[in-house]
Amino acid sequence: MKMEAFTVENVPLIKEGDDIASIICDNAEIKDYDIIVIASTIVAKSEGRVFRLEDIEAGEKAKEIASRHDLDPEFIQAVLDRSNEVLMEFPILLVETKNGHVCIKAGIDESNVEGGYLADLPEDPDSSAENIGKAVEMNTSKKVSVIVTDTNGRAFKIGQTGIAVGLYMIHPILNWVGKKDLFGNELEITQEAVADEIAGAANLLMGEGDGGCPVVIIRGLKLRSEDSTSVKEMYRTDREDLIKKGLRCLRDS
Amino acid sequence: MKMEAFTVENVPLIKEGDDIASIICDNAEIKDYDIIVIASTIVAKSEGRVFRLEDIEAGEKAKEIASRHDLDPEFIQAVLDRSNEVLMEFPILLVETKNGHVCIKAGIDESNVEGGYLADLPEDPDSSAENIGKAVEMNTSKKVSVIVTDTNGRAFKIGQTGIAVGLYMIHPILNWVGKKDLFGNELEITQEAVADEIAGAANLLMGEGDGGCPVVIIRGLKLRSEDSTSVKEMYRTDREDLIKKGLRCLRDS
After folding, report:
1. Phi, psi dihedral angles at B140 (to 5 degrees)
2. What is the mean pLDDT of residues A8-12?
3. Where, in this chain's numbering, is a divalent metal cation 1 bound (chains A, B) (predicted)?
């Protein structure tokens, strides 16, 4: 079995209104079952999801958090506006976003944006993935999947990996339920987080710096779904999320 | 930029004493800078790291934990023998292993092993990776890296991904420190967990079930290190691990 991953070359600096699907189709030959992996920053920029701190007025809670940790109240307000819950204030500002994604600073990106501006995550990353995916399919008559990605830290280990924040026609989890292992025993580990594994693979080619390539195509996997998909399928429910419970315990003690 | 990943075909069922390096060299044409990704299960098996519960005598602590949660005391004892600390007993038995790796059940694998036997993680996975890597380099005169992998769950999201548990000639983290973004701003996200991203990419091809391919080669990345490497470079120190603190808070409250 074989998989290829390659960057789409000549993607220009993206600005509001740019048509990412057309740019991809102009610069890569798309095949059936390709998985198109796109950095959320360019999706957000094309959707005009950039903002300036000077346009934000900090409320009481933002001011409180900011003063406790010597942070910028307008920035804290921007994070709160995009969050369901603050899981930790300091030393990292860890929140659950309105979309249910747990990340630092609500995914607001201070890099790769023109001076003075900050980039949001796309407002509804599944819809963003769908819009781009459908446009690529219209342009090419090929069946594709799309993964919009960000980078995230993780528990117990330093470093960030690419992760999926929005999906089109690929489920985040591949179920091995009921399958047998080499010796006919029922498999114990049964859910593979394929969308995050693909996002991580693509991130190896994207780079983080000024040589950044925000679009990567993954070819050779047969993971296109038959039905519609959402990144939210992989978010743990509050009740079963033991790490969140631990962080709340720490926060409230 | 382009990356290829492919499975090494015809890897037989591995048993104690099998020479994994020779099996890889016989079944794949290795090139310079290839990253050879190997499932820890076959490494452990080749090293004879399998055991039976009936050979274990459970101590007081194992019996206590087992009776609280209706679990098997001998199995709990096997986990305790391999652990520095139990971070959570139930509903998942989450521990830090003697190697500093946080995982469920100390990584003891109940699948893909002959009936009655359980498979350990390799005792020192960095050494296992080094042994295989050096033997491949001797056989082929090519310079390679090796990643021994397992699968792990993660915080906030369901599903497991492939992760690195042992490394040869590849650092787990790629530092982007001091690099500039597209607009000349200092990058904020600075540490990419490349070994885990590669392990995840390989896991997409390995499969979990009876079609499993335990060896994958990743080609096209220039990540071979100049100096010796260890997976432990990416484990957070106890002092800075906030999620561990949260889990202890929950455990001890």
Report:
1. -115, -15
2. 94
3. 109, 150
